[in-house]
Write a structure and sequence with these properties.
It is a single chain. The chain has 161 residues and is α/β, with parallel strands linked by helices. It folds into 2 domains: 76 residues, Urease metallochaperone UreE, N-terminal domain (HSP40/DNAj peptide-binding domain), CATH 2.60.260; 61 residues, 2-Layer Sandwich (Alpha-Beta Plaits). It has a 7-stranded mixed β-sheet. Strands 8-9-7-10 form a 4-stranded antiparallel β-sheet. The radius of gyration is 17 Å and the shape is elongated. Its main location: cytoplasm. InterPro entries: UreE, UreE_C_dom, UreE_N, UreE_N_sf. Keywords: Chaperone, Cytoplasm, Nickel. It holds the Pfam family UreE_C. Involved in urease metallocenter assembly. Binds nickel. Probably functions as a nickel donor during metallocenter assembly.
């Protein structure tokens, strides 16, 4: 298994690609598969959130580009900026990851949140797209009591991403 422990900030072109959903791009310990079919183990610094387009340096010197996988999302649009701000407020109050766009919000598909947003007067549409939510005011280290653990764990990808 190819080991990846380092973010790469140079200008070299990636020779490999790793496509992951947002959920898996938030894991610092992960076993996954490159687009080429090779298995990799990610052991990145805790709190690392991988974004589409970021690059990683593998232990053997190869550069791996991270791709944001298309996901089932909900796109939220409102009649005006005030209603959109209200929808964003209610999502933030529930600590929901939100991607901001010109006149829209996107969240991961959730029927309960979809109902809440429709109740607020928003138009909610199912879309399939890469998900790149805002990092948040706390970006690294924002954790609630009972979340996470200091013990290292590796998460295994299953299903289709």
């Amino acid at each position: 298994m190819l080991l990846i422990e380092t973010l790469y900030t140079g200008h070299a072109v990636a020779s490999e690609h790793l496509e992951l959903s947002f959920e898996y791009r938030t894991k610092s310990r992960l076993r996954a598969t490159l687009k080429s079919g090779e298995e990799v183990g990610l052991f990145l610094p805790r709190g690392t959130i991988l974004r589409g387009g970021m690059k990683l340096a593998a232990a053997d010197g190869r550069i791996v580009e991270v791709l944001a996988a298309p996901e089932e999302l909900l796109e939220v649009r409102c009649a005006d900026a005030l209603e959109l701000a209200r929808a964003a407020y209610h999502l933030g109050n529930r600590h929901v990851a939100v991607e901001l766009g010109e006149g829209w919000l996107r969240i991961q598909a959730d029927h309960v949140l979809e109902g809440m947003l429709a109740g607020l007067g928003a138009t909610v549409t199912a879309v399939t797209a890469p998900f790149e939510p805002e990092a948040g005011a706390y970006a690294h280290g924002h954790q609630h009591p009972g979340e996470g653990s200091s013990a290292a764990r590796i998460h295994v990808m299953g299903g289709s991403y």
